[in-house]
Amino acid sequence: MGVFLFLTIDQGTSSSRALLFDDKFNVIDVFQKKFKQIYLNESWVEHNPNEIFESVVSCCEKILKGRNSKKILSIGITNQRETIVVWDNKTGKPLYNAIVWQDKRTSELCNNLKNDGLEDTINKKTGLLLDPYFSATKIAWILDNVDGVRKKAKNGQVCFGTIDTWLIWKLTNGKTFATDVTNASRTSLFNIKEMQWDRELLDIFKIPFHCLPEVKACDDYYGDTEILSRSIKITGVIGDQQSSAIGQFCFEEGDLKSTYGTGCFVLANTGNKIIYSNKKLLTTISCKINNDVSYALEGSIFMAGGLMNWMQSNLKLFKNISETSKLASSVNPSSNVIIVPAFSGLGAPHWSPNSRGAIYGLTQDTGRSELIHSSLQAISLQTYDLLEAFREDFESNSISLSNFLSIDGGMIENDWFVKNLADITNFNILKAYTKESTALGASLVSGIGIGYYKGFDNIKSLTNMSNKLQSTIDKNLRKLIGNRIYGCLLYTSPSPRDLSTSRMPSSA
To answer: Which residue, among 197, 276, 190, 186, has the nearest Cα to 238 in the 3D structure?
Structure first.
């Protein structure tokens, strides 16, 4: 175990965790606490902000109990990004539940803004598409629909923030009202070129400037904790997918990672270049470390591990996720059962919020093994579709994309899935240094912020990834895939499109 320790708060969509890393990147301790998911209807998803904070404090205190606080140098925070919280800055009381990134209630508002011809302006300033996924329309909805909030906001009594901002404000007892550049870049309010809140965007969404937090670098100082049993400096804040990229050591232009949690998030480092996608990928800030800003392209699949949870919880097809690898491997690779997991619409590169899930190719011989096989394969196939979009965008901008795909998340423990992912994507798969790479990223950022690590070059010199390579490509399997999944994706959309637009190889 290393000499010094770093506490990381990993605040996710379904649970909060606190982890303790030593200075050799080893996990020393971890505590997790789930919290309630509030589904008001099929498209509204909320969290209780107080419950989130209480879960964070509970996990942190369990970490701190009986431990020498002098060895804990700093706290890093990583979080679900687009989820928004609004609270009274005098009382600290939330004025509404947190509206979660999955929430689709602002679809009509997004469509109205598109019809007004505003999407291009928003895209050029923020790198984002006009979609309910991002924070701005959620804030606008709260201002327009929750009694008294707009009046309070006008009077300077309201704070709006992503989850990191809420946690920092609470942990510092209201002394720090701030966010980092990565979380700010997911709001549709932050100009990624000028690196500041954009007045024109604030006017578009009718959001008061003074209700938004100060925007800091990822490795900045965010204050000392005053709520925990011990005072610790907060010196690292970064959104979860950017944190995962750092935790997987994707420091160089062209480096590529994919995280398989509830959803799947693919992020590719574009260095100091802002690249606007022709394939509906998102342009975002990767990080700001040591005053250097780097950018990334990002694509998301809304259902990955969430699909397997549905198979387990709703269909009762297996008791333990560990069973799925064996069950999937028992199925003939030529099985024609296709599952399209568009439970919450389709993410990149389609961005079809009204698409819905479907199962194709059922026969009397279809059983649980075939359904599990097709579910795992669907995640690989959608990843392929995403990676082809990345490849085309990088080629059009004369940037080399790595042929290594670094992966993390709970699903990478499934050996069949990892092999299938390599088979279908034609990428060399590199498993993460640790399954806790998202939390590790925030730990590394806080370590840089406190001055323990000098930067990414220093961190990379301390690691060895050579033994993590996963092979390989099964060309025979790829030939069986065809464009079946993409064809099914198209026909789950409200407006079916020509199958000729498929990115799947015609020879497959």
So the answer is: 186
Quick count: other Cβ atoms within 10 Å of Cβ 275?
A: 19
As a whole number of angstroms, the distance between CA 378 and CA 361 comes to 13
The pLDDT score that the predictor gives to residue 474 is: 52
Find the helix or strand (DSSP H, E) in which 287 lies. strand 282-289
| Nearest alpha-carbon partner for 378 in 413, 433, 330, 338 | 338
CB proximity list for 115: less than 8 A, separation 6 or greater: none
139 SS3 class? helix
Q: Can you say whether residue 156 is alpha, beta or left, with left for phi > 0 and alpha for psi between -120 and 50 degrees?
A: left
Token pair belonging to 467:
């033994």
| Residue 16 three-state SS | strand
Q: Radius of gyration over alpha carbons of the chain, in Å?
A: 22
How much is the pLDDT for 495? 40
The alpha carbon dihedral of 391, 404, 503, 414 has a sign of negative
**pLDDT averaged per 10 residues, the chain (length 508):** 84 94 92 93 93 97 83 95 96 96 93 96 95 95 96 95 98 97 98 97 97 98 94 96 94 93 91 92 95 94 89 91 90 83 83 82 90 92 91 93 90 89 88 88 96 88 56 52 51 42 38
Cα angle at 78 between 75 and 80, to 5 degrees?
150
At 31 the three-state DSSP class reads: strand
- Partners of 154 in the beta sheet? none
3-state secondary structure string across 359-401: EECCCCCCCHHHHHHHHHHHHHHHHHHHHHHHHHHHHHCCCCC
Sketch the domain layout of the chain as residue ranges.
Answer: 5-240
Residues 6 or more apart in contact with residue 104 via CB below 8 angstroms: 43, 44, 132, 344, 345, 353
How far is residue 215's CA from residue 402's CA, in Å, rounded to a whole number? 31
Read out DSSP for 296-352?
A: EEEEEES-SHHHHHHHHHTS---SSTTHHHHHHHTS-TT---EEE--BTBB-TTT-B
Sole residue written with tokens 């033994």: 467
97: buried, middle or exposed (CB in 10 Å: 19+, 13-18, 0-12)? buried
Tell me, what's the pLDDT at 502?
A: 40
In the chain, what are the helix, strand and coil shares in percent, each to the nearest 5?
35, 25, 40
- pLDDT for residue 485: 52
Q: Which fold has domain 5-240?
A: Nucleotidyltransferase; domain 5 (3.30.420)
Number of CB atoms found within 10 A of residue 271's CB? 18
Buried residues in 306-337 as b, exposed as e (16+ CB within 10 A): bbbebbbeeeebbeebeebbebbeebeeebeb
Long-range contacts, stretch 142-146, CB < 8 angstroms, 24+ apart: 142/84, 142/86, 142/95, 142/96, 142/99, 143/206, 143/207, 146/86, 146/95, 146/96
